[in-house]
Structure formats: C-alpha cells, structure tokens
Amino acid sequence: xxxxxxxxxDEVQVAxxxxxxxxxxxxxxxxxxxxxxxxxxxxxxxGQFYTQIKNGAPFQVFLAADDS
Length: 68
What we know:
Layout: E1 11-17, H1 21-35, E2 38-44, H2 46-54, E3 61-63
Parallel strand pairs: 1-2, 1-3
C-alpha cells in the first residue's frame, strides 16, 4: 500500500492489476479528497506492467496481482 501523505505531484500514476479495479477506485476517491492530488490509474495485466516499468514507464505505484 502507499502512504497518502507521501504524494508530491499533482497527479500520481498508478499501475493496477485488473482484479484490483474496485479497491483502487475507493482508494482513489479518499486519496483525492485527503490530498487534493489526482490518482490516475491504468488497469491491465501484472506481467505487462512489470515489463513497462522495467522499461521506464512513469508509474509511482504498482499494485500487482502476483506477489512474486
């Protein structure tokens, strides 16, 4: 999980495994209300995001479906 107080940008880019769609929507609403920052979520496959991040994708947070 991420620390709400740690955000320093106007937008926080979050890579989200598709099965976490509902939880991140609830988290995003609280995050935006508490910080004034916008949470921008991209939904997809964990492996796909892993590859993108290894190649420099600009995500500040990665919520993966696979713990390895």
